[in-house]
């Protein structure tokens, strides 16, 4: 897709007359976008890009990079201009950004998985193969703790406290927080640490502090975690577009639905502002409305 970007730069410079600063900002955002959809979504041609891929890119910027609405809106504008150009050049049959709006986009409720879907993903990796057991541990930890992808790949083996039942996580701004580890997560992690990780580490011939390692004994990257989550969803037969942050959304939504206090969820997620956590109250409310429609005599069925 780099070729299309180069052509777009020429078009924007010669025909649109964009200011140099604006063009540089567009190009920077678009390079980030194209790298993201290639590495995390497997999109190699413009026509393969879906609206959900763009949403994932914007959400990654919001949660991993901490971008504000204005920066996210600028990224979206760059993508919209690029796709209008692609449509004009007939590189795509339709403009997938056509109905997407700026800051109001972030009023959209987060997608999350049902408990049955999470259970299916946890059962997706079976067997005694080293990488299968590692992948199973990754899915378990992501759902059990609600950590971000960046926090997961940075999680250190010496940050686990099995006796106390928690793990130390380094979040945004190098802020440390404590996340609980339930019995299933502790059991799976202990098996991974004792039987799997030492063999993976030997393959690299060195000592790596990160908890989750590749088959070559190196720390896993965010891109690899994306692939593992996508594979788990596919193996589980889930047709919706599943991405790592959806497990974090599910963690929070299921806690709230189970009666957990919002302040406690805020602490476990590492949100600086409780307003960020409050979006999950709307998610839970959506579940209440669905239950009312389904079970109440005058809930609107039929």
Topology (SSEs and partners):
Blueprint: H1 2-16, H2 20-41, H3 51-63, H4 69-88, H5 115-122, H6 130-145, H7 149-154, E1 160-161, E2 166-170, E3 176-180, H8 183-204, H9 222-235, H10 244-257, H11 262-269, H12 274-277, H13 279-295
Antiparallel strand pairs: 1-2, 2-3
Description:
With 302 residues, this protein is mainly alpha-helical. It has two domains: 2-107, DNA polymerase, domain 1 (Orthogonal Bundle), CATH 1.10.150; 115-293, Orthogonal Bundle (hpI Integrase, Chain A). It contains 13 helices and three strands. The protein has helices at 2-16, 20-41, 51-63, 69-88, 115-122, 130-145, 149-154, 183-204, 222-235, 244-257, 262-269, 274-277, 279-295, and strands at 160-161, 166-170, 176-180. A three-stranded antiparallel sheet has the order 1-2-3. Strand 2 (166-170) and strand 3 form a beta hairpin. Helix 3 packs antiparallel against helix 4 and helix 6 (130-145) crosses helix 10. The chain starts with a helix and ends in a 7-residue tail after the last helix. The mean pLDDT is 85.
Concise summary:
With 302 residues, the protein is mostly helical.
User: What is the rounded Rg?
Assistant: 21 Å
Mean pLDDT: 85
Helix % is 55-70%
- The number of E-state strands comes to 3
Any low-confidence stretches, pLDDT <50, length ≥5? none
- Please give the CATH class of the largest domain: Mainly Alpha
Structural class: mainly alpha
- CATH-assigned homologous superfamily of the largest domain: Intergrase catalytic core
Discrete helix count: 13
- The gross shape turns out to be globular
Strand content: under 5%
Domain tally: 2
Q: Multimeric state of these chains? A: single chain
| Main pleated sheet | 3 strands, antiparallel
* CA distance, first residue to last residue: 47 Å
CATH architecture of the largest domain: Orthogonal Bundle
Helix/strand order, N-terminal first: HHHHHHHEEEHHHHHH
